[in-house]
Amino acid sequence: MKTRNLIGALALALLLGACGNNASVEHATEEHGHEEGGEHADAREGAHGGRLLEQDGYAVELAIAEDGTPPKYQAWLYADGKPLPAAAGKVEVRLKRLGGVAENHVLKAQSDGSLMASTVVGEPHSFEVEVLSNIKGKALRWEYPSYEGRTEIAARIARDSGIRVAPAGPGVIADEHEVQGLLTPMEGRIANVMARFPGPVRSLRANVGDSVRAGQALASVESNLSLTIYTVSTPISGVVLARSASVGSVASEGSPLFEIADLSSLWVDLHIFGSDAQHIRPGVPVKVTRMSDGATVETVLERVLPGTATASQSTVARATIANADGLWRPGSAVKARITVEQQPAALVVPISALQNFRDWEVVFIRVGDMYEVRPVKLGKRDASQVEVLSGLKAGDAVVTEQSYLIKADIEKSGASHDH
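Given the sequence above, the corresponding structure tokens read:
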């Protein structure tokens, strides 16, 4: 897996390099709680560490305050370079996020001389910014981009790098238990084929592993009593598991010559340990995996046996699987996933979509050729997917494969910053 990831990352780096590195969107130099940044190198910093927006002798210093508060816009007013009281003007910040999502933040005068919004600026702080202000009757307007956690990758490069997306939507989170078990023949489907009368074995017509049908002759034995040869046949169809006779040996009355088993269906005896046994009941779904080649079959748990396996001190839960192709072999170890409960979730994404970015758990969404980080609050999860409680909406195109490549490109292009 690590080798494949490294190859993918190198491939993406080479493809982006071949494009002159124009595939990445440069990040605005924004420091949350200090400066509301933009992509312009000449952006000035105000006395409070915010971005200084100037026009016609007036200025608005704009920052995102985060010290002791959820992220909110805060502003200070100036005229001819001198501070003004908060009551001298008004400030409104309009944001347009990736995908055209708009939000407004109206700032109101505070007792400390600043203006502050009551609304929270959600993560990521990546958007087109429009600032509207009115200072002493003078209408002012600024606009600039402020991006973080965003990059642009052409569709061809994304496709060649194996990047795949899928819409976020409703799903089911399963409470699952991973267990191991053993395949065994079903009781009542094993027959011991025996000689009716003692005597020497004159012929044998089946070997271990042969498939036989009910009534098929397997051997001939010469009776010591009548000196006549009679045929020994199998009472059931199945596979020869064992042959204890050889030509010329003497068959004893009641001693088995062959062991035949009907293996068209098998028991799966699953070993459950500790408190897990208290949660597992008959009737729940089971997915059995063959260890030799990873083949799977779905079935239902039939019963939980009342006793305890002596050697392992485990509770045995039993299911039945079909074995028409004969590839499931008695005595083989298998692993299984028992689904105890399934709970619907309004929004789920694959586990493969998750990445760590700064101090968040995130996914990346795609809009056109743009990719952007989305911090998410997660709920329950199972082996394949996780519930998303906030940070996404249904229909968002989430990167489900090679999401680490998006993270790597954002970090390479400088499109992230520390809080």
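The first strand starts at residue 44 and ends at 45. Try to locate this feature in the token string yourself.
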